[in-house]
């Protein structure tokens, strides 16, 4: 793994959360995007080398909507950038980690993504990300 790529935060109200994080961080999001496959609106803030992703579910069956309904707003996942997502997925499976998807899928911010089940990572949802080339 190369580095922490971003921290994902689940929110109820996208506009309200973006305004709050603008006030908190002093910068506008550098990118907003709708990810249809996941049913989420996303926005990305960058402070120094750190990125924060805000996620709002757009339909009741989306993972983010379910998360907010069950747990409330807050940290949803931590994402790690990897050089080769396919090799990293195989390595983690070999180490006994449970992956939530068998193949990487297109995520926000021009990335391929795969998630590691929280049960196999001390209760933390881990996202692997690789820049789409």
UniProtKB/TrEMBL annotation:
It is an enzyme of class 5 (isomerase). Coiled coil: none annotated. Pfam families: Glyoxalase_4. It comes from the Bacteria. PROSITE patterns: VOC. GO terms for molecular function: metal ion binding; methylmalonyl-CoA epimerase activity. This is Methylmalonyl-CoA epimerase. Belongs to the methylmalonyl-CoA epimerase family. Residues 3-131 form the VOC domain. InterPro entries: Glyas_Bleomycin-R_OHBP_Dase, MeMalonyl-CoA_epimerase, MMCE/EMCE_epimerase, VOC_core. Its EC number is 5.1.99.1. GO terms for biological process: L-methylmalonyl-CoA metabolic process. Keywords: Isomerase, Metal-binding. The lineage of its organism: Bacteria, Pseudomonadati, Bacteroidota, Cytophagia, Cytophagales.
């Amino acid at each position: 793994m190369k580095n922490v790529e971003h921290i994902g935060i689940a929110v109820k109200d996208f506009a309200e959360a973006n305004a709050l994080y603008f006030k908190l961080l002093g910068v506008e999001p550098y990118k907003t995007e709708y990810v249809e496959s996941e049913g989420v609106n996303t926005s990305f803030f960058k402070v120094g080398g750190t990125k924060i992703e805000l996620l709002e579910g757009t339909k009741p069956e989306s993972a983010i909507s379910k998360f907010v309904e069950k747990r409330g707003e807050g940290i949803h996942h931590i994402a790690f950038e990897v050089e080769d997502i396919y090799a990293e997925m195989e390595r983690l499976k070999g180490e006994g980690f449970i992956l939530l998807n068998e193949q990487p899928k297109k995520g926000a911010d021009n990335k391929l993504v795969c998630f590691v089940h929280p049960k196999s990572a001390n209760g933390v949802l881990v996202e692997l990300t690789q820049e789409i080339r």
